[in-house]
């Protein structure tokens, strides 16, 4: 059997304060606040590099550079406030609605109007390109939904089944024949362009502000009121889960690049992040005004949040050299190239993978060499000689106890070799995790060298120091016991006073609160005493 090197003793990790993903989201730098001409009602990043950002505010579509965050160009071809600026999947076209009932398609490069669709009779608040790139759907305050054909500039689908404003919608990338719309009539409808009708109708509790499809062909998220609900189309629109961590209406939803995290912005000034595996909130950030729109760039280097104050926050995350190299390598793996055939050669696998590795000789520490030869005394000297971490020494002492070699390791020593052991015991005997073991070590030392203690001045001084530490610890326990008795007496007096005043006073709540505080303090003192 191969020798197993000594491992450090593992202890329970301290509970970390804060939410589990705070470290990642805090890597986004302090926000740059950009003032727009009106409320920032929509934000969206281009799906192609450099992932430019389009911000819809007032009568403008503002395009910002995806790398620098600087304004590149403005599209001002609107006579009334614009809504829902959205990129096509190739990043070359933009579509937007406005308060003058129009739906317009723009060329991103020239800013020219390519198509204007007329058919709505009220403001258009939601526009999106269909996955086939040749069609656009729109929803309006006139309660109608249209699908427009770009080449023919005609409406190929029309429905007025909603009974209130249509303010949100999404497409399903994996199913180009379906799209969803959300309305203030408290419903979400899934439309099938092949049948020309509503395929699924889903009722919710509040007006629908945002609808977002998730990776896959069936699940989507709906923001209605202060909650975000998940539904499954494949189950006929069956609700899966509801997340209600917001205090006010949720206005915007977006996904991270992997589709594993959902970001939700709300009028309560917060943007919250949810894990779509557990449906639990993993991070929350606060903003100076109610949030109307949220967008995260596909490469997760930029987070944009639009607010009612006419300002949007732009936060950037620096990408490490290793992460950038991985992205570039992924982009270079074109079929037929060397990188394509070499891909995966440096893959290290994940924890769940089954690995078959050849045995490699491992260099052992000096104390491991002595343990392997059962030279316990020399192993203890070695671990104490080089100022190693306390946990390493403790691990060795526990191993000696396990091997029944503690007495052998401590026997046959003079005052010089006993000195580092006594110093270590004196230093760590008050440590709660090590006290029990070091008391055992101290007892073994006294059993072996009890008759020889006074023959060495150095050993006597170290034992006196150890004794003073033990007395100090005992005195602390006595003080805590006295304090515990005092707190018990205070709590009893408070409870008696509460019983007497229960029928004649209206201050029961204050007395109960005082008793609760005293009880909590007592429990804390008991915990400290133990």
From TrEMBL:
Any GO BP annotation: rRNA processing
Taxonomic superkingdom: Eukaryota
Keywords annotated in UniProt: Nucleus, Repeat, rRNA processing, WD repeat
SUPFAM superfamilies, sorted: WD40 repeat-like
GO cellular component: nucleolus
Residue span(s) of domain U3 small nucleolar RNA-associated protein 15 C-terminal: 347-490
WD repeat placement: 117-158, 172-201, 243-284
InterPro entries the record matches: U3_snoRNA-assocProt_15_C, WD40/YVTN_repeat-like_dom_sf, WD40_PAC1, WD40_repeat_CS, WD40_repeat_dom_sf, WD40_rpt
Compartments reported by the entry: Nucleus, Nucleolus
Protein name, as recorded: U3 small nucleolar RNA-associated protein
Encoding gene, per UniProt annotation: utp15
């Amino acid at each position: 059997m191969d020798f197993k090197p000594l491992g450090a003793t593992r202890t329970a990790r301290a509970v970390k304060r804060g939410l589990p993903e705070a470290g990642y989201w805090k890597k986004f730098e302090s926000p740059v606040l950009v003032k727009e001409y009106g409320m920032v009602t929509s934000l969206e990043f281009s799906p192609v590099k450099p992932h430019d950002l389009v911000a819809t505010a007032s009568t403008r579509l503002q395009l910002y550079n995806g790398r620098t965050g600087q304004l590149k160009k403005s599209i001002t071809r609107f006579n009334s406030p614009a809504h829902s600026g959205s990129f096509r999947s190739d990043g070359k076209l933009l579509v937007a609605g406005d308060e003058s009932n129009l739906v317009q398609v723009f060329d991103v490069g020239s800013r020219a109007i390519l198509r204007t669709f007329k058919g709505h009779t009220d403001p258009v608040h939601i526009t999106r390109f269909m996955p086939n790139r040749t069609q656009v759907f729109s929803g309006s305050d006139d309660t109608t939904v249209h699908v427009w054909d770009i080449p023919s500039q005609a409406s190929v689908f029309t429905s007025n089944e909603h009974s209130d404003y249509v303010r949100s919608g999404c497409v399903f990338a994996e199913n180009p024949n379906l799209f969803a719309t959300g309305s203030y009539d408290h419903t979400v409808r899934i439309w099938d362009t092949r049948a020309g009708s509503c395929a699924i109708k889903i009722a919710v509790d509040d007006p629908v502000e945002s609808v977002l499809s998730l990776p896959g062909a069936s699940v989507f998220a709906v923001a209605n009121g202060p909650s975000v609900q998940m539904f499954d189309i494949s189950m006929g629109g069956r609700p899966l889960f509801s997340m209600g961590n917001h205090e006010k209406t949720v206005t915007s939803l977006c996904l991270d690049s992997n589709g594993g995290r959902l970001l939700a912005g709300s009028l309560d000034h917060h943007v919250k992040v949810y894990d779509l595996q557990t449906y639990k909130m993993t991070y929350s950030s606060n903003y100076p005004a109610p949030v109307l729109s949220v967008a995260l760039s596909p490469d997760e280097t930029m987070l944009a949040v639009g607010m009612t104050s006419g300002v949007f926050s732009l936060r950037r995350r620096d990408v490490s050299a290793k992460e950038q190299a991985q992205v570039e390598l992924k982009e270079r793996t074109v079929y037929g190239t060397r990188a394509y055939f070499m891909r995966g050669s440096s893959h290290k696998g994940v924890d769940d993978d089954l690995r078959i590795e050849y045995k490699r000789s491992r260099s052992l520490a000096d104390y491991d060499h002595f343990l392997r030869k059962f030279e316990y005394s020399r192993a203890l000297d070695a671990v104490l000689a080089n100022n190693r971490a306390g946990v390493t020494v403790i691990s060795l002492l526990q191993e000696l106890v396990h091997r029944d070699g503690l007495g052998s390791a401590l026997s046959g020593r003079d005052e010089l070799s006993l000195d580092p052991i006594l110093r270590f015991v004196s230093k760590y005997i008050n440590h709660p995790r090590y006290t029990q073991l070091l008391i055992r070590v101290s007892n073994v030392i006294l059993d072996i060298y009890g008759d020889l203690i006074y023959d060495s001045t150095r050993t006597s001084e170290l034992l006196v120091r150890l004794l003073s530490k033990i007395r100090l610890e005992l005195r602390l326990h006595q003080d805590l016991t006295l304090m515990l008795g005092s707190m018990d007496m205070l709590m009893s007096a408070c409870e008696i006073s509460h019983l007497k005043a229960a029928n004649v006073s209206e201050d029961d709540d204050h007395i109960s609160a005082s008793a609760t505080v005293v009880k909590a303090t007592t429990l804390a003192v008991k915990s400290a005493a133990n």
